[in-house]
Amino acid sequence: MLHVQGLTGGYGKEPIVKNVSFDVQPGEILGILGPNGSGKSTLLKMISGILPKQAGSVEIADKPAGNYSPKAFARNVAVLPQMHAHAFSHTVRATVELGRYPYQTGLFSSWSAEDEAAVNHAMERTGVARYANTLIESLSGGEQQRVFVAQALAQQAPLLLLDEPTNHLDIAYQQQLLDTVRSLAVDEGKTVVSVFHDVNLAALYCDRLLLMEHGEIAKIGLPQDV
Ligand code: ATP
Ligand code: MG
């Protein structure tokens, strides 16, 4: 589903991510681990096309990532960034609704019952439905994180790229979120690539782990081998 080959690049001349290659299959969760600054977020940003690459290739569903139109890309890939720069004056519902943007064909006419259901389901799954009409800025850090996860889920994309999805979450919500992610992979066949800081948590929920060091793959394999 996701094929990354010799991926190299960063923010300037000096590459941050160096010659990274891996594959992820449908239904599989790949966890990315590594110290601060090892290039985990940069790698996700390069796969999501936010950063240009200097060398290598990214294929999603057998098609070069660069060949997708922005909307088609967003229907296929949901990205949860590590840092959120959103319009905080939106309500929770409006923020989750943004996840349906890739499916809209007109400005006012195309909102469907399916969009509504996707938004409601995503809010239920992340426990933010009861804040639907609350402004984002008046929620706690963990509640906001759950809203951004809901936005990514509402996208219903076959590939999810998650950068520290459990950021700011308490233990109970960490488990709830990771159970949800597991069910997206196991029951719905989604492909998941997710950055983690907690090795034990990653080992528990991921099928394989990729350890980054200085922008390179130090190890990749089954959780017990990494
Ligand atoms: P963390 O665990 O702290 O999230 P990370 O593994 O995700 O770390 P990256 O964010 O990928 O690390 O950063 C890798 C390197 O790229 C760092 O040395 C950092 O200084 C550099 N870097 C990150 N963002 C930028 C940016 N916007 N412009 C220039 N350099 C950057
Ligand atoms: Mg990071």
UniProtKB/TrEMBL annotation:
Q: Which stretch of the full-length chain is present here?
A: 1 to 226 of 489
Q: What is this protein called?
A: Adenosylcobinamide amidohydrolase
Record organism: Sporosarcina gallistercoris
Q: Which domain of life is it from?
A: Bacteria
Q: Where is the ABC transporter domain?
A: 2-226
